[in-house]
Task: structure prediction
Amino acid sequence: MFVGLVSLTFFFVALLLAFGLRMDAQPEWQHFQVPAMLWAGTAALILSSIVVELARWALRRALVAVYRIRLLVAVSLALIFLTIQAVSASDLLGQGVAVAGNPRGSAFYIFMGIHGVHLLAGIVWLGWIWRNSAQLFEGTEQTLRLHRRVLSTAVLFWHFMGALWIVLFWFLRRWANSA
Result:
């Protein structure tokens, strides 16, 4: 997991540098407003990260029913985030912000899209973990330990995706405001 997260970090840093250099080289671009609903989406993603940590806490104490509910809440919050992302992209299109000819606008679409795909992968992963957690009601201590390890790896990825969005959102807001 560590190697994958380091690779993702370098990938996004390279994209940030590429877009940043392109924007600095050609500062004359269409002005637009960052959709305010992205703040609500960011809050939903942060809350999802908190709830998934609370789910892990419940699993450490073998509170399987509580764990399963919290995991569903975390996934639901992430789906809300993705919905807000889609509505925000639609808002940008409504402002006339296109990918072609506007690196600040294309940065929004590209970063929201790539981050969204990775987050969707995390949602699928957490959904798979939730589905497999039903066996914990009748499982052994060994089953519980294995599930905890799998969850810990998924939670690491989940927190990374949350932190990554905060960094991306900061850059996207900065670039839109400097337009």
Observations:
- The mean pLDDT is 86.
- The longest helix spans residues 141-177.
- Helices lie at 2-25, 37-60, 64-94, 103-132, 141-177.
